[in-house]
Each structure stands twice: as C-alpha cells, then as structure tokens.
Specification:
single chain, Glutathione S-transferase Yfyf (Class Pi), Chain A, domain 2, two-stranded antiparallel sheet, mainly alpha, globular
Amino acid sequence: MTNPLLETWTTRFALPPFDRIEDAQFGPAMEAALDQGRAAIAAIATNPEPATFANTIEALEQADDLLDRVAGVFYNLAGADSTPAREALQREFAPKLSAYASEITNNAGLFARIDDLWRRRDSLALSDEQMRVLYLTHRGFTRSGAALQGFARDRLTEVKSRLAVLGTEFGQNLLADERDWVLPLSETDLEGLPDFVIKAARAAGQDKGQDGPIVTLSRSLIVPFLQFSPRRDLREIAYKAWAARGMNGGDTDNRAIAAEVLALRAERAMLLGYDSFADYKLETEMAGTPDAVRKLLMQVWEPALAQAQTDSVKLTAMLHSDGVNGELEPWDWRYYSERRRMAEHDLDEAELKPYFQLDAMIDCGL
C-alpha cells in the first residue's frame, strides 16, 4: 500500500488527500522526506561546479519540497485536531527536525558556496528578487550559526535542539490544561447568556461526555462566557483557571520550562555575538532594536494607561450599581465592557454573530 503523503496529489487544487491519510503514515513519510532532503543538500554542497545562483540558492529552495509538504500536512492536522497519537509524533519530530536544520546550517561546504555568492553578489547580475533571496539565505545561515566553529557551533546545535523539544512540551502542556479543565453549568447558570454561548456550552458538554453544559478553557467558549455571564462567581472561577494554565503544578506545569527556555535563548544569543535574545530576535523585525521597541511602548503607555483608568471608573460604577461592593476585578472587565458597549453604542454581538457564521458568509459571497 502506497503512502499518500509521498505521492503526487491529483486532487482538486492539489490539496492533500486527507481521506486517505492516517497518523501511522507520518513517521515513514517524515523519514523519507528527511532522507530526500539530506541527499539534495549533499548534492548541492559537493557540486564540483562553481557556485551559481541556480545551482546553489535555487537548488536549496527546492531541496525540502517533500519535507515541506509532509510537515505542512502533519502540523496542519495536529494544530486543528490534536490527539494523543499526534502529540506523540510532535514530540518525536521536534528533535529530528531541529537536527536536520542544524545539519544544513552546519554544512561547511554548503555555507562556503552561499558565502562565496554573497561576496561576489555585485558581479552576478542578479535581479532585485534574486538579490533579496540571496541576502535572506546568507543572513539566515549566519543567524543559525553557520560561521561558528568548534565548541560554539556544537553547543548552538544542542541549544537549538533543546529549545525545539521544550517548545513542543510547552505547547502540549498548555493544551492539556485547556483540554482537561471543565466547569459544569446548571440550567440556571445559563440564564443571561446569549443563545450562541448556550449552544457552545451544550456542545462542549456533549464532546466531553458530560451530562449537561460546561465551560472549557477553549478561547471560543471562555471568552464569550466571561463577556456575557452575569454570574460573577462563575466568571471568577473560569478566569482564574484560564489565567493559571501551565502553572498548576504536576506534569503540565510550564514554569520550569519557561525558565529553561529563557536561559537557553540568552545563551543562543551570546553564542551568536548578541547582547541579548531581544537583540537577536529583533534584528530582522521592523523595530530593529530593543531600544526602539521600548521607545514605542513608552509612547503608547501613558495614553493607554489614562484611557484604562477612565474605563475603570465607568466600569466600577456599573459594578456598584449592581449592588456589588469592592474593586473591579479582572473577571469583571469583559462583562461590564460588553454592558457598556450595549448601553452607549447599542451594539449587540449576540445579534451580529449569526451573520458571520461560515455558511452565511459563503452565501453572501464574502
């Protein structure tokens, strides 16, 4: 039986044949794609012909076509429909893909060809587009440690591998906390909620095998619950659970992982010659430097704080008018902001929601 992940897809728009793809096929397909990619990279690096844009940069762009396809299908499925089997595959693939990426950037012969083209770029008669691709390729290799030698190169490889593993663990721990926590609701707990939230809570209960409606930590359910539920006690329970994801102790606690990630990011930046991970990360972003980011944030901070304080006064007054004494709490903001929007702008999200359902948008040609 052939593996559909390794076939040429003849489906409409060359979309993956999802009806024929099984989880058990991803492991063999990933190994085959990695082997094909390694062979393509080796052919580029050992090409006896002088480096040209075509035989080096263009060839490099095409070397991972199969890997991109297999990984694209897998991570699309794993992100949209996570299962224990797919989570296990994510943990298996993370160090393998990191090791493969390091093999490429640590390939001295390959980087020598790229560096040679970069040094000769002004004499290559490249188009603007080709020059941009060459620049990005050379920069990407350099930022991945291609110019490092000895211990620094080996240590950076270890750091990147560990970060890939930790990133997968962090995301899966967060997902586990979101998936496992539920707040059962009675019929009276549903009072005041719009129909779309009630339907979502009942559907969530059915999905979880519960006897009735529930609130979960899925953003599509907990956010509208915090926004519309008049039950302050339930909003508090739900908000605190949402805010505590990844720091509840036990196997899914992310605090130690976060600390290790920060330390490894700092070491990665140091190995590459940057003052901090922020300097490394922002080099390729629009802001460019941590100082520029801080300057922008401080320009926004004062007016944003002033507006938040103004909003707080109004929302607190609404809270007190409901007979609740005390301060406005984090689990109150969304609820009273929605009430304020209704009062001041007569804009009801519950009435707008049906018009933005997928089928309705398709019927309207959106």
